[in-house]
Amino acid sequence: MTNALPFPLAEAPDRDAQEAATRLFRQGADFLKGVVAMSGLPPADRMEVCFAGRSNVGKSTLINALTGRRALARASNTPGRTQEINFFTLADSHYLVDLPGYGFAKAPVAVVEKWQRLLKAYLQGRQSLRRAFVLVDARHGIKPVDEEIMALLDTAAVPFQTVLTKADKIKAADEPKLLAQVRGKLAKHPAAFPELILTSSETGAGIDTLRATIATLV
Ligand SMILES: Nc1nc2c(ncn2[C@@H]2O[C@H](COP(=O)(O)OP(=O)(O)OP(=O)(O)O)[C@@H](O)[C@H]2O)c(=O)[nH]1
Fold it and tell me: Which of 29, 48, 62, 108 is the most exposed place for a label (fewest CB within 10 A)?
């Protein structure tokens, strides 16, 4: 009874959702600004989704794949930008928000603390934030640092959806073990959205589903 499992994999989008995604994403995405303090946030005047994940999880690559802009998220990866919350416009109706990667080993404590304060303030105070996508490397499953951000999202009551990245790097035989680990961890998080998206920026798997998810958020 696969469909009775908690946190099933999202199904492929239906035709309406696909059309909504095509309409939205063909209008294009652009880098707007990097933000280091709450006072720098753009007006909360449109639908907003954010992307969080451990360093190297494939966040920039995924944002590029979603928007079809090869180097879009590179802007947020250049030295000096990595501690900023980066805003991208999508059409004139959405913001895509790239949160700094966490779990970096060598950042000074003061830097990490400053970024955690900003992240907390952003997640708790942003009215227009509809959903957070928490990216998790399919090879590694949910790590303690991922659970920290999930706990923060629980507290802030921001619904979050888990997006597994680099699906092309795991063997089909290892998928059940990964999904069991992820489902077990998510069961403890009240803000977890009850569907997972398995993606690969390499093969394009799951990208349409994620686009359609964003395009049909209300
Ligand atoms: N095989 C495979 N490799 C991927 C995929 N997505 C990203 N990568 C690779 O993983 C590495 C990290 O990807 P990035 O997109 O830079 O990761 P990031 O999360 O933005 O990293 P930070 O900037 O450190 O936060 C790169 O070498 C990518 O080419 C994927 O779906 N499949």
Answer: 108
Eight-class DSSP state of 109:
H
Give the number of the atom of ligand 1 that is nearest the alpha carbon of residue 203.
31
Q: How many angstroms does the Cα of residue 163 sit away from the middle of ligand 1?
A: 14
ipTM: 0.98
155-200 pLDDT tens trace: 999 999 999 999 999 999 999 999 999 999 999 999 999 999 999 9
Confirm if 95 and 88 have CB atoms less than 8 A apart: yes
Delineate the domains of the chain, giving CATH numbers in brackets.
Answer: 7-215 (3.40.50.300)
CA of residue 50 to ligand 1 center, whole Å: 17
Our CA angle for 132, 86, 144, nearest 5°, is 45
- CA 179, distance to chain mean position in Å, is 18
Copy the structure tokens of residue 27: 């209008």
pTM, 2 dp: 0.94
Asked whether the beta carbons of 155 and 126 are under 8 A apart, the reply is no
Which residue bears the tokens 């199904």? 11
Q: How far is the CA of 124 from the CAs of 118, 119, 187, in angstroms? A: 10, 8, 22
Ligand 1 pocket: which of 56, 84, 198 to mutate (most atoms within 8 A of CB) = 56
